[in-house]
């Protein structure tokens, strides 16, 4: 019997932007409404793995999802393997390189992530 779970996850990942609403070309907000600012640009630390993050991770999710985490090397390894099971195009060597890069720069010994505060319009 074929395993349909992989297909459902792929369909969900492809459909998610449509279900949540596209950011570009969205209708204008009603008066008094607000929205999240564009995601803050992340200055990825130089080193082996930097190109993998920008080319293989960011086409599915935003940078803040990665940089906000503080995982151990074993946890990053598990996360990378999970992403490969969900369709991330990484060879076994790239998986090891990416997990090591993420653990080095976004491990539990790094300072907590500080998101940029929202700049909301003041109500009159």
Radius of gyration: 18 Å
Q: Assign an overall shape.
A: globular
SSE topology string: HHHHH
Distance linking N and C termini: 62 Å
**Tally of alpha and pi helices:** 5
Q: What's the helical proportion of residues?
A: 40-55%
Task: Label the structural class.
Answer: mainly alpha
User: Number of DSSP strands?
Assistant: 0
Report the major sheet. Answer: none
Low-confidence stretches: 21-27, 34-39
Q: Roughly what fraction of the amino acids lie in strands?
A: under 5%
Mean pLDDT: 79
Short structural summary:
The chain is mainly α. The chain contains five helices and no strands. The radius of gyration is 18 Å and the shape is globular.
Could you please describe the fold and organization of this structure?
This protein is mainly α. 45% of the residues lie in helices and 0% in strands. It contains 5 helices and no strands. Helix 4 (73-85) packs across helix 5 (92-105). It is globular. Mean pLDDT is 79; it is low at 21-27 and 34-39.
Question: Which key terms come to mind for this protein?
Answer:
124 residues; mainly alpha; 45% helix; globular
Write the layout of secondary structure elements.
Blueprint: H1 5-20, H2 50-57, H3 63-67, H4 73-85, H5 92-105
Helix pairs in contact: 4-5
């Amino acid at each position: 019997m074929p395993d349909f779970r992989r297909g459902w996850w792929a369909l969900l990942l492809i459909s998610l932007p449509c279900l949540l609403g596209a950011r570009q070309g969205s209708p204008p907000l009603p008066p008094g409404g607000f929205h999240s600012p564009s995601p803050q640009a992340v200055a990825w630390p130089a080193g082996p793995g930097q190109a993998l993050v920008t080319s293989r991770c960011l086409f599915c999710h935003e940078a803040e999802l990665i940089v906000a985490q503080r995982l151990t090397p074993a946890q990053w390894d598990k996360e990378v393997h999970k992403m490969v099971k969900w369709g991330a195009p990484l060879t076994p060597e790239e998986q090891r390189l990416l997990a090591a890069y993420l653990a080095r720069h976004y491990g539990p010994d790094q300072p907590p992530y500080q998101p940029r505060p929202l700049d909301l319009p003041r109500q009159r």
